[in-house]
Amino acid sequence: xxxxxxxxxxxxxxxxxxxxxxxxxxxxxxxxxxxxxxxxxxxxxxxxxxxxxxxxxxxxxxxxxxxxxxxxxxxxxxxxxxxxxxxxxxxxxxxxxxxxxxxxxxxxxxxxxxxxxxxxxxxxxxxxxxxxxxxxxxxxxxxxxxxxxxxxxxxxxxxxxxxxxxxxxxxxxxxxxxxxxxxxxxxxxxxxxxxxxxxxxxxxxxxxxxxxxxxxxxxxxxxxxxxxxxxxxxxxxxxxxxxxxxxxxxxxxxxxxxxxxxxxxxxxxxxxxxxxxxxxxxxxxxxxxxxxxxxxxxxxxxxxxxxxxxxxxxxxxxxxxxxxxxxxxxxxxxxxxxxxxxxxxxxxxxxxxxxxxxxxxxxxxxxxxxxxxxxxxxxxxxxxxxxxxxxxxxxxxxxxxxxxxxxxxxxxxxxxxxxxxxxxxxxxxxxxxxxxxxxxxxxxxxxxxxxxxxxxxxxxxxxxxxxxxxxxxxxxxxxxxxxxxxxxxxxxxxxxxxxxxxxxxxxxxxxxxxxxxxxxxxxxxxxxxxxxxxxxxxxxxxxxxxxxxxxxxxxxxxxxxxxxxxxxxxxxxxxxxxxxxxxxxxxxxxxxxxxxxxxxxxxxxxxxxxxxxxxxxxxxxxxxxxxxxxxxxxxxxxxxxxxxxxxxxxxxxxxxxxxxxxxxxxxxxxxxxxxxxxxxxxxxxxxxxxxxxxxxxxxxxxxxxxxxxxxxxxxxxxx
Length: 719
What we know:
alpha+beta; 9-stranded antiparallel sheet; 5-stranded antiparallel sheet; 21 helices; 22 strands
C-alpha cells in the first residue's frame, strides 16, 4: 500500500466534515448575522480612517493610544526628561516623577494589538464586528436566531454604534467583553456547560478591569437570574437544601471564581501604580471624580451633583438616546416599547416568559438607573442651556452604550412578531405562494424604509458635525503634515492648559521620546532643549480661536527656531506700520520691571534691537525712553516681552507682541527665536494671535531674528 502524507486526504475529510457540520448548524439568520458583523467591521474602518483621521473631539482617545504605545514597549509608566513639559492629557504624576494614565489598560491593550499590526484602527474593526456578532448570539440565546439577526442589524444601524465604532474609546471595547459574557452565560445556562460558564467569567472579569462600574451594571441582572435559577422553587425539591439547583450553583461558582480573578488583576494593577489596591488611577488623578452624589470635581470643573440634578441630566441624555441615537430614532424606540409590551402582556396573561428574556429587560433597567449615580452624564451635555453643546452632540450618549443591546433586542422581537403576523394574514388572503411572497416583500421594503429614513436623518447630523470638526483639524495640522521631520523637537501651544495631546491628539510622543519628532510644551524650554541637544527646533503656533467643534478654523504656522548663547544676545525686530497709523509706542517688560518708549512719528517700519547682557535688557532704535531711565532687570529664567502699540484712525489700534525666552547662566545668556503675535483683539493675545504671513491687513508685518554676539557664542541645536 502506498504511503499517504499525514496531512493528506484524512485531514481534508475531517475539515470537510467539520465545515459541513457548521453549515448544517447555521441558519439563514445566523449567516445574515455573520455578514452583518463583517459589515460592522468595515463600517468601523471607514469611520476611523475617513471621519476621524485626526481623532474625535473627545481627547481621551489620545490617552488610550498613548497607553497602547506604552504597552507595546512594555511600559506602564513614562519618565520624560522634563516632566512639566511632557505631561500627556489625563496622566497622573507619581511621587517619583513617573507619569501613568488615569484609565485601566484593557482598552489600550486591545488597541495595541492593531498597532502591532501597523494600524491601530484594525482593532476597531474587530471590536465593531464582535459587538454586532455577539449581539446576535446573546439575543439568539434569549429569543431565537431571527430575533438575534434583526437585533444585530438594528445595532449596526444605530448612530451611536456607527460613531463609536471609529473612535479609540473604551465603550465599545467594554461592551464587546460584556456581550461575550452574556452570550457565554446564557449558552451555559441553556446547556449546563461549565466551559461556557468559565468563558463568561473570564469575559466579565476583563470587562470589570476595563470599566468596573459599567461591568457591574451590566452583570447585575445576570447575577439576579443566576440566584433565581439556583434557588427557584420546584415541586420535586421538598427541602430547602434540596431546592438548590446544584448544577446551576456549580456553574455560577465557576463564573464567579474566574471573574474574580479579573478583579484581582485590576486591584493588583492599582497597587502597582497608586500604591493602594483600592485606589484606582482615576481616583489618584481626581479624588472627587467618579460615581456618587455630592460635590464632584475634575480639574477646574466642579458641581454639586444632587439626585435632582442627576435625574434631570439623565432624562436629557436618555431623551437624546431614544430619539436620535438608536436605529430608527423614535420609530426604533417605539418598536422596543412594543416588544416590551408584548413580553409584559404574555406575563400578565399567564404565559411563560423565559427568564433569559427578563435578563435583557433588566439590563436596560440596570444601565438606566445606575447611570443616574454617575455625574459624567451631566458632563456630556456640556452647557445644559445650550442645545447641541457638549460631546453628546458629536459622539452620542456613550455612557449608555450598553442600552443598545436591550433596545435592539426588544425592537427586533417586535419586528419578528409583526413579520409573523403579517405572514399569517397575507398567506390567508392570497391564492398563491408567489403572490404572498410579493406582498410580503413589499411590506418588508416599506417597513425597512419606515426605520431607515429616520435613522438616516438622525445619523446625518453627527456625521456632518464631526466632518466639519475634522476639516478644522485638517487645516490646523497642515504645516506639520507637510513637513518631513528628522530628529526634530516641536514646541506646542496650550489652549486648554499645560497638557500634551489636549487638544493636539495627533501629535503624540513615542514612550521613549526617541521618535523622528518629539513634542513638548512651552514650559521650561531650555531644559527641554538641553535634554535634546541635537534636534532641529520648531515652534507650532496658530492665529484664530481654537474651537474646531464650533466650526472655527485657525491659520497655523510651523516655524524653525534658533537657540543661541553668548555674553550678549540681540533680537533684531522689524515691524510694519500701516499708512493710516497715528502713533507708535513701545513697552519693554520682564518679571523684574518695565520701561516705556515713544516713537518719533510713524515710519513705514519700526526697527528695534533688544539687547540682553548680564542681568539687564535694553532697547535700541528710533524710540525715546519715557520717564525713568533706569535699566530693566532680567531674572535667571525669563520671558522678555516687547509690546508695540500702533494707534490708527479714531479709537482703532492694534499691537505687536514679541516674547523672547531668555535664560541667564554663569557663562552668559541664552535665548530662543521669539514668539510673535499681532493682536487685533486684546482678548486673543497670548496664544491665539500668532503672526502668520499673509493673514493680516496691508502694512502689518513682522521680521525677527536672534543672535549671540561676542565672537565666542555657540549655537545650540540645529534650529
